[in-house]
């Protein structure tokens, strides 16, 4: 018997249309979960930059004293960043370099705002969780670090109040909670520090850590901070450039879904221009693409993104491995010449 297939065809077409509409709605819902109000942007900026000014032969104190950049060098760096439209920078501690940077911004009336860091040193020996921490940290060193952390908070609070017109937010601790770090601070201590800082300054306060830590363990801290400070690095998780932006979006959706209602800023995201660890995935071309895609996404979702980082820093990582990833995240080379990402069109 010959069957009239027209009703079946129409039914299939209607189901396909409904399925397509449902998929569209789900896709929009998935995307919109990370959309934020424009008020979530720090200083109204989408793309910002992480800044540390150590040049060839310079380094922070690693036990034998620091070799810091001079005022002329820091001012040169700031002018380079302003010339490339970076008007929001992240500083990682409240030490001498940060004070000098803030003074230079003020003295030269530079159009630069700052996310100020307060660096927390280890108060817990994470030698069982950190791959490169071979021996337990001595108890006396941990006790000393606790006092140093209190001093750092005192310095940071002082800077935040002294330079209130420049510092738009404060970050207490950098990757001090994630399971693999070498400078771990117990969560209850970080919460106490956040409360201490919030009581002493007017600016919003956050903590910077890995997206996965926030998703899994961040609820108690999220209740204390004014916004969430997220790190996300697809390259470190073996993702290629084609996967980088979808993976970043998935990370951010996870944070928003786990901790709804909190503003979010990406305090570190980037791509190394060369790295023996990443092979061909590391390149200036891929760095430029990741930067461009992050900028487009941040603009669409009203998310501030601190690209890591401004300048290459040879002091980082293994001194016997010049091709190590840690040395090559800058959008400028260590000699301050621009990489491809800082060309006119970023292509």
Please give a structural write-up:
The chain is of the alpha/beta class. It has one domain (46-342): TIM Barrel (Alpha-Beta Barrel). The protein is 39% helix and 12% strand. It contains nine helices and eight strands. It has helices at residues 6-32, 71-83, 96-107, 139-162, 187-200, 211-217, 219-222, 241-258, 284-301, and strands spanning 47-50, 88-90, 113-118, 167-174, 205-210, 228-231, 264-269, 305-307. It has an eight-stranded parallel β-barrel with strand order 1-2-3-4-5-6-7-8, surrounded by five helices. α2 crosses α3 (96-107). The longest helix has 27 residues, at 6-32. The radius of gyration is 22 Å and the shape is globular. The N and C termini lie far apart (63 Å). The model is unreliable at 1-31 (pLDDT under 50).
Could you name the key traits of this structure?
alpha/beta, 8-stranded parallel barrel, TIM Barrel, 9 helices, 8 strands, 347 residues, disordered N terminus, single chain
């Amino acid at each position: 018997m010959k069957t009239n297939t027209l009703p079946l065809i129409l039914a299939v077409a209607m189901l396909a249309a409904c399925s397509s509409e449902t998929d569209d709605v789900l896709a929009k819902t998935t995307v919109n979960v990370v959309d934020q109000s424009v008020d979530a942007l720090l200083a109204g900026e989408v793309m910002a930059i992480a800044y540390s000014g150590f040049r060839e032969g310079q380094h922070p104190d690693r036990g034998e004293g620091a070799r810091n950049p001079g005022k002329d060098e820091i001012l040169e760096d700031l002018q380079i960043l302003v010339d490339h439209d970076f008007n929001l920078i992240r500083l990682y501690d409240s030490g001498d370099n940060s004070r000098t940077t803030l003074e230079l911004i003020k003295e030269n009336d530079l159009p630069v705002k700052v996310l100020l860091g307060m660096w927390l040193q280890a108060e817990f020996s994470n030698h069982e969780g950190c791959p490169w921490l071979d021996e337990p940290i001595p108890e006396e060193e941990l006790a000393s670090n606790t006092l140093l952390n209190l001093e750092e908070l005192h310095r940071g609070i002082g800077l935040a109040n002294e330079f209130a017109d420049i510092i738009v937010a404060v970050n207490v601790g950098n990757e001090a909670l994630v399971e693999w770090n070498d400078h771990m601070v117990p969560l209850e201590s970080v919460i106490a520090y956040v409360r201490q800082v919030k009581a002493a300054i007017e600016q919003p306060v956050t903590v910077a850590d890995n997206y996965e830590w926030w998703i899994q363990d961040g609820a108690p801290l999220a209740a204390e901070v004014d916004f969430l400070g997220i790190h996300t690095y697809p390259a470190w998780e073996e993702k290629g450039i084609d996967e980088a932006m979808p993976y970043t979006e998935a990370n951010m959706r996870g944070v928003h879904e786990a901790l709804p209602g909190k503003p979010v800023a990406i305090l570190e995201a980037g791509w190394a221009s060369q790295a023996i660890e990443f092979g061909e995935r590391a390149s200036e071309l891929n760095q430029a693409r990741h930067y461009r895609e992050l900028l487009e996404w941040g603009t669409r979702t009203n998310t501030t993104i601190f690209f890591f980082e401004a300048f290459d820093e040879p002091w980082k990582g293994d001194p016997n491995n010049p091709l190590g990833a840690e040395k090559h995240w800058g959008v400028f080379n260590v000699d301050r010449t621009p990489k491809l990402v800082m060309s006119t069109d970023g292509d």
